[in-house]
Amino acid sequence: MKPLHWALLGLFVFLLPVLLLGRHAYVLIHDCLDTEISLVYLLAKRHLAFAYGPGMVVPEVMNGIPRNALRPGLSATMLIYSLVSEPWRAYLVQQALVRLGGLLAMYWLLRGYGLRQPRQRGLAAAVALAWATLPVYSIYGLTVLGQPALLRAALDLRRGRHLGVAYAVCGVFPLWSSFVYVGPFIAVVWGGFLALDVGRRGRAAWASTWRGAAGLGLLLAVYVVVEWPLFYSLLVAKQFVSHRTEFDYQRLVPHGVGVGLHEAARFFLVGQYHASPFFRGVVLLALGLAWRQTSGPARAQLVRRAGALLLVMAGLALFCGFALQLAGAWQHQLPLLTAFNFNRFHFLFSLGWFMVLVLSLRELPLGQPGAARLAYGLVGLQFLVALPLNEEYINNLRLALGRPNPAAPSYAAFVAPKLLGQVRAFIERQTGQAPAAYRVASLGLPPAVAQLNGFYTLDSNQNSYPLPYKHAFRPLIAGELAKSPELETYFDAWGNRCYVEAAELGRHYLIAKQPARTVRHFAFGAAQFKQLDGRYLLAAVRLENPAESHLRLLGVFDDSEAYWRLYLYEVAP
């Protein structure tokens, strides 16, 4: 078989545990299953992908969150979730396609630049496989793993090669990536290199610069079309005032030079969990070995190119390490600092480090058997060091081997459709009401569980929602926030997780049925809950004194497949 075919087979083997497990596979929970999947599912279910009108809402979330507070509809992710009705199936399809796209993107880049020689074809395929198996939030599409295709397009535009394909890549990339995570940062880096090229080569660079600027302009223009609700809100008229205007980094972020340097080192040497993190030690090892193997002009070129990449990333990592502290110092003078996260240059770091790896590997004399084994060994080692941070793969491997992680519920255990079906049926028998007729909130489990089971929730995890709603929700949990300065800061200075809190639980939102947990004193704003049309509390913990919270226990529900045991409480009349 050809090397690319071996890489595709390797990717299939990598995906095999999750494909075999199906709905019993582990799906990333933090900022994925507890947030994004339910929202994409609801948009697809209600056919609201392109419902950008000012009065359009998603009634299942936060008493009708504005539709424009959620992700745009013009994306491959929305298409997949619209075509595949079951959320877990849609997620697995997206996961497989994103990793396949990442592998092909990296291979395409390396066969055009970096590892072009015939004898390097196998190494290019191996690097592409290592890239495609990095930890990834596939719910964000090709935001990270698709970057090699965009880099290949930028390089082709500079060289004047394959222009049609290059412009097509620039036009397609925004359709399956997140603007807020990478769009502005790609623009800054790409624009910076175009300016640097003009500064170095003068008039000789004008033609390539115009082509590059056209590609970048096309990329940004399509992003504007895709993210039109966001840009309309920023530039024309706001549909609502976001809760993000009350972000307070002064309270939220630890301060000090040491803190900033520690964060910078983490960004530089490991990365951030949303952005395909991995320990960079293997890349530095490969660079050191390549430096030893070369001499003269070849060594100078390696040092110049790899050194430039490392210096740029080190500088950006330093900026990222202190960005939130700087935002806290200037947030009142520049409100945009609270509306937008400026430290997301780290989303580009994984590609930068892989380019350093490629620059190093190409200097090893692959014609010599020992050097070839060394090169493939380094790529294999890179694959292995990335695995410990691949939470999804590790937990699915454990599930497939019959040794599940007790703290990592599968999709089926997390969503628990039979358990929530029991609750829904019980309420309907008691009241004759369907879920649309009442509102619920959750304690000890993410609201996404209820959302994925057809309930209408007052609580949710949202990147943006109306500020007045945050103010209306706060009295529900004011008593608990008063008990915990940590929770109070987390809600008041951040507030993305607009959750029912309990100080006795802290910031723990995955309370399993075993061991059973009890909250002794729960200061709940029942009156405000009723004002928001709230009626039922779905709790993964038992309340020892529900009457003091003006709640009464209606029933306890369990299911062998579920991660939770649910206590159903109703606001006392």
Automatic annotation (TrEMBL):
Q: Does the keyword 4Fe-4S apply?
A: no
Q: Which domain of life is it from?
A: Bacteria
Q: Which UniProt keywords apply?
A: Membrane, Transmembrane, Transmembrane helix
The record lists the membrane-crossing segments as 88-110, 122-145, 165-196, 208-226, 277-294, 306-330, 342-359
- InterPro entries linked to this entry: DUF6044
Write the protein's name.
Answer: Glycosyltransferase RgtA/B/C/D-like domain-containing protein
Q: Which organism is it from?
A: Hymenobacter polaris
